[in-house]
Write a structure and sequence with these properties.
By secondary structure, this protein is of the alpha/beta class. The protein folds into 2 domains: 141 residues, Rossmann fold, CATH 3.40.50; 67 residues, Orthogonal Bundle (DNA polymerase, domain 1), CATH 1.10.150. 46% of the residues lie in helices and 12% in strands. The chain has a 6-stranded parallel β-sheet, sandwiched between helices. Helix 6 links the parallel strand 2 and strand 3.
Length: 219
């Protein structure tokens, strides 16, 4: 992958920060309180990688009625409190980003979440210093989130890199599908995902972020 590599785009949740178990546990509790009994594992299966608007739509479909007003606002507040208590960086995240930077390749973050959430989680995980202010991107900045390619096209354009010279590191089928649709190569971080599913969506799966530099051809 090193040939003509200009930019590595990292997803945030589940790739750089270990936020998915926390988010899905809080979401499961919120939905259960709203009358839709949901386990943390079921939350992962149904909602992982989705925009909040898509989570609402899917939950209301399963529930058969609208969610209570303010439920997702409460979820975001409770999730932030949980992040502040226990959020950590994904093992090897700093080393992987620094290896890319040391090779003279650009880096950025493109997340389905809001910019404020990305800022918070990177800061809590001790990774915020790795990325310039102008290298953080959110699906809320584009018309369509993942699995559509809009976010990755936006990030690449802002960073001055052609899509074919970008590699995305993602951990969900939704994210891999978006990167593939954007015409970018994809590494699928499969620590908590089926590597076969990531491969089928178009990614080269890895089990550890320590593998990323070698897969990129950076050593």
């Amino acid at each position: 992958m090193a040939a003509d590599l200009a930019l590595v785009i990292f997803d945030c949740d589940g790739v750089l920060v270990d936020s998915e178990p926390i988010s899905n546990a809080v979401l499961a509790a919120s939905l259960t309180t709203a009358g839709l009994p949901t386990s943390a594992d079921e939350a992962v299966q149904e909602y992982k990688g989705m925009l909040l608007s898509d989570i609402r739509a899917r939950a209301e479909q399963l529930l058969g009625r609208p969610l209570p007003d303010g439920l997702l606002d409460d979820f975001e507040r409770e999730r932030e409190q949980a992040f502040r208590t226990s959020l950590q960086a994904v093992p090897g995240a700093r080393e992987a980003v620094e290896a890319v930077q040391a090779a003279g390749v650009g880096v950025c973050v493109a997340s389905q979440g809001k910019l404020q959430k990305t800022e918070l989680t990177l800061t809590l995980a001790g990774l915020r210093d790795l990325f310039a202010d102008e290298a953080l991107f959110s699906a809320y900045q584009v018309p369509r989130g993942k699995p559509h390619p809009d976010l990755f096209w936006h990030a690449a354009a802002a960073m001055g890199a052609a899509p074919e010279r970008c590699v995305v590191v993602e951990d969900t089928v939704i994210g891999v599908s978006a990167a593939d649709a954007a015409g970018m190569r994809v590494i699928g971080y499969a620590a908590a995902e089926d590597p076969a599913a990531l491969r089928a969506a178009g990614a080269a799966p890895v089990r550890s972020l320590a593998e990323v530099p070698a897969v990129l051809g950076l050593g």
